[in-house]
Amino acid sequence: MKVNKRVCVYSCFIAIGILTFFLIELCKVNSLKVEQIYSNYVFLFIAKALGKIFGLLPFSLWELIYVALLSIPFYVFLKLIYVLIRRPKEIKLYALKYTRTLIMVLVPAYFLFNFLWAFNYYREPLVNILGLNYPGFEKNDLIELSKEFIYKANELRENLPEDVNGVFYLNQTFSELSENAENGFEYVKLVNMNLGKRYFNTKPVVLSKLMSYTGITGMYSPFTGEANINIDIPKTTLPVTICHEQAHQRGIAKEEEANYVAYLACINNPNKEFQYSGYYLALNYLMNDLYQMDKEEYNKLKSLYSEKLRRDLNYSYNYWKAKEGPIEKIWDKVNDSYLKSNNQSAGVSSYGFMTKLLLAEFKNRIEN
């Protein structure tokens, strides 16, 4: 009887694994159906349900779960060392036991990860949803758009608040920022995007200072629907980071697309601090690409930065430089592998593909 029960349990886990694989492969070749059925209906229902359940909590449940998950490998490792020293003959039995338990946890977790959110990785590309034509771009397009964004960032930065060091400072609390972000998403809804509502507040990460050493500014949890934000990062990118994670919360899974939606939500927000944050992020990506193409032109445009914009950029550079180290490198590789396994073949480089969307919008704007 025990054998039959065990076989039944194992069969269920195998079936779940096969079903997950089948659904992913089906999604890969049916992006329009994913968009129409899953992203615009099934996911929005899931997001609403998760919001009502976990939105009641004033803290991030996912942060607690995540810390617990990170501690499990250390516990298992220490346990295996203990068994190896005290009961070496049982080491194979314990290793098999933990491997079996791991599989029984990962298989349903992977299914839920996809069903609750990650099928959005296979929805229609954002360029199709927005009707953007992207035949490619020339260097001159990149230069002109970068110049436009420099002037815009300089203009916005001029009258924004500063701290005692002359660096951009936010007058809004985190709670106010997460609420005010909604104003920018009202515009995004008007440009042919059914993104639904934000059903509960974005959650600040308590361990934000430690989080910075991983290089991560935010993290969305498909299991709880929470948008978790690193609140220790430079304030120039805090509003756009909130919008980025809220874009994930609304079903925009791919990183470059979440970046672009965050940019749209920021620059169309009536609040100047959000507008500056959106242009600041976009300008960084544009200038990074220009640096790779033509360093001389990059230096010419960089000379157009206002003194205030330069102070913000220098502060951000020094902040992240101080956080570099082995943890950041390890996490970068983990994130790279994660993205590549979820329909983003460029891995962490996909964040920078936002430039293509910006230039596609630019080309459409000047041609129409």
Record keyword descriptors for this entry:
368 residues, 3-stranded mixed β-sheet, mainly alpha
What can you see in these coordinates?
By secondary structure, the chain is mainly α. Helices cover 68% and strands 2% of the residues. The model has no long low-confidence stretch (mean pLDDT 88).
Residue share in helix: 55-70%
Tally of helical runs: 15
Low-confidence stretches: none
CA radius of gyration is 23 Å
Q: What structural class should be given to the helix and strand makeup?
A: mainly alpha
Keywords: Membrane, Transmembrane, Transmembrane helix
Pfam families: DUF3810
InterPro entries: DUF3810
Transmembrane segments: 7-24, 64-85, 97-119
Write a compact overview of the structure shown.
This protein has 368 residues and is mostly helical. The chain is built from 15 helices and three strands. This is DUF3810 domain-containing protein.
Topology:
Layout: H1 2-28, H2 31-54, H3 61-86, H4 91-116, H5 126-130, H6 139-157, H7 174-190, E1 203-204, H8 208-212, E2 218-220, E3 227-229, H9 238-249, H10 255-267, H11 272-293, H12 295-302, H13 307-323, H14 326-340, H15 354-367
Parallel strand pairs: 1-3
Antiparallel strand pairs: 2-3
Helix pairs in contact: 1-4, 3-4, 6-11, 7-10, 9-10, 10-11, 10-15, 11-12
